[in-house]
Specification:
globular
Length: 171
């Protein structure tokens, strides 16, 4: 596979999503956090839409469906973002649940390197655990630590792997 301009755009979307998403987790200002997370969300929706199309064209339906599922989860997160931390929890639970499913779907085939698949599965497990805890009454917010915050670095490592896969030179 050769790198196309759409691969570059998808890579930029993943990079912006990872950087702005992590940054939003650590800022105290609600308007700044919501702005960073909105930029993050839009970038990830664009990136995963492009990745859905790429892997569908390559005939890798499971990976394509995984990226489409990630897009749906990110859309839920975007929808709740402007409501503030507490009010966004219902859409957050739906979003991270879809992220978890998506990460497993993208990682099930051996399309990506093993280390990327492992970081994705670890992130998925942490997001499922977080969603279950919230559903069972734990007062967790998207910024709570250790969960769900522990899942974000694994998600970003997975993004870095996907970026590397998209941009690496042909052999």
């Amino acid at each position: 596979m050769r790198t196309t301009s759409l691969d570059t755009v998808a890579s930029l979307g993943l990079a912006i999503g990872g950087i702005f998403g992590l940054a939003g987790t650590f800022v105290a200002s609600a308007p700044l956090r919501e702005t960073l997370w909105t930029i993050d969300g839009v970038a990830l929706v664009v990136a995963t839409a492009l990745l859905t199309m790429k892997y569908q064209r390559l005939g890798n339906d499971c990976v394509a469906a995984g990226f489409l599922t990630f897009l749906a989860g990110e859309s839920l997160l975007l929808a709740g973002n402007a409501a503030g931390l507490e009010a966004s929890v219902p859409s957050y639970v739906g979003g991270i649940s879809l992220w978890a499913a998506a990460l497993v779907m993208v990682s099930a085939p051996n399309t990506f390197a093993l280390w990327m698949r492992l970081t994705a599965v670890i992130a998925a497990l942490l997001f499922v655990l977080s969603a279950c805890m919230i559903l069972w009454g734990a007062p967790l917010l998207p910024t709570s630590s250790p969960l769900p915050a522990a899942g974000y670095p694994f998600l970003v490592l997975t993004f870095i792997g996907w970026i590397w896969t998209l941009l690496k030179p042909e052999r």
